[in-house]
């Protein structure tokens, strides 16, 4: 099922024409309503009339999180305050939160984007759907909530916290769908098992997971333990929140709502636009937003864009998994390391729990990396030999994937802190 075939299956030519018209309108709107953009454009000697098609987007200035912070709280808002019906904030993973105001139309577009996503996951009116993202300033909870209502399914606003109660609700209400972070999905699986229950005691069929990077191996683990099919959902508050892109039944890249959120990939150093297929930094322009539209917003998320028709029938551009944020990239002894690389190794080892923490330090001017992992209860043994062998296996695999050695610290199950929202995988003592 496709929620809005007229947009999701639009021909590429029609889509480009639509995007071009919308971009022209947007540029003239921000030029006349946001001094920040007008000043930037004047400095670059561009006027709204210079934008004639979507390809002209490369002439426009970029917007960064720092620009949002410098103009805190409402400096980049284009609509008058009386038109704003809701305000959200980013989670503040990488610093102070940024504030985003939405008009009634922005909320309607967001509900449309979420309806496209949920329909792509196979969620229908008959489903009962648990929203276990945090409700509040974070966009996850309310964003998914209104999408579920929009398609007419039943929403259970479980939010986060009290996981045992959540498990009982899953069982008693025969909840069929869930949205949460992948790390919370694992925590839920753990709690289910601790309560002496298993996937056959619940009816979950579909999961929408996002808000943090996760790997294919993590998907397999969650699907297996909760007995559902897990789909990626991506979004960020500066653009709208969850629903910017979503996977379809093919689970091969996430379709972008590109009639509203226009994607580009750039080289983060030269800022040049890169062709499809090349990895770089993802950039979005909000083509239809009224409250706080952004021109070429640099997400700092690293991925690739894919064109070409998808077997599901949708023709919109897809984005690959997020490798990580450029902010998440650790440079250890000169080598680039992403936490997701470690995750993918750990999830391939059945004797290790899918939990980990990287502790980076600098001792005698040399960077050190310690990887803390938990040994699964069934594999925990007093036999030194077998524990050392396990440690060596992990350490060899890590070395081959990261190209640097790490000290492995084996811990008891449950010792690494679990997260209900976005998880934290790195302690960098060098920057403390
Ligand atoms: P913050 O930037 O403070 O975390 P948000 O709450 O708006 O603010 O989170 C958006 C960010 O979350 C994205 O830029 C991205 O880094 C991450 N994110 C969201 N969805 C996904 C996903 N499906 N996969 C990987 N990362 C994601
Ligand atoms: Zn598809």
What does this structure look like?
The protein is of the alpha/beta class and 432 residues long. It folds into two domains: 1-326, Rossmann fold, CATH 3.40.50; 330-431, 2-Layer Sandwich (GMP Synthetase, Chain A, domain 3). Helices cover 31% and strands 25% of the residues. The protein has helices spanning 5-8, 12-33, 35-43, 65-70, 104-120, 139-151, 163-172, 182-194, 216-226, 339-346, 384-402; strands spanning 84-89, 99-103, 128-131, 154-156, 177-180, 206-210, 229-236, 241-247, 254-256, 261-266, 280-286, 297-303, 305-306, 318-319, 324-325, 330-332, 335-337, 352-363, 366-375, 407-411, 426-428. Strands 4-3-5-6-7-8-9-14-13 form a nine-stranded mixed β-sheet, sandwiched between helices. Strand 7 (229-236) and strand 8 form a beta hairpin. The longest helix has 22 residues, at 12-33. It binds adenosine-5'-diphosphate and zinc ion. The site of adenosine-5'-diphosphate has 20 residues, from strand 7 and strand 12.
Hetero ligands: adenosine-5'-diphosphate, zinc ion
Shape: globular
**Percentage of residues in DSSP E strands:** 15-25%
Tell me the number of helical segments per DSSP (H or I, 4 or more residues long).
11
Strand line-up in the sheet with most strands: 4-3-5-6-7-8-9-14-13
Assign a percent range to the helix content.
25-40%
CATH class of the largest domain: Alpha Beta
Low-confidence stretches: none
CATH level-four homologous superfamily name of the largest domain? ANL, N-terminal domain
Q: In terms of structural class, how would the helical and strand content be classed?
A: alpha/beta
Query: Quick check: average pLDDT?
Result: 95
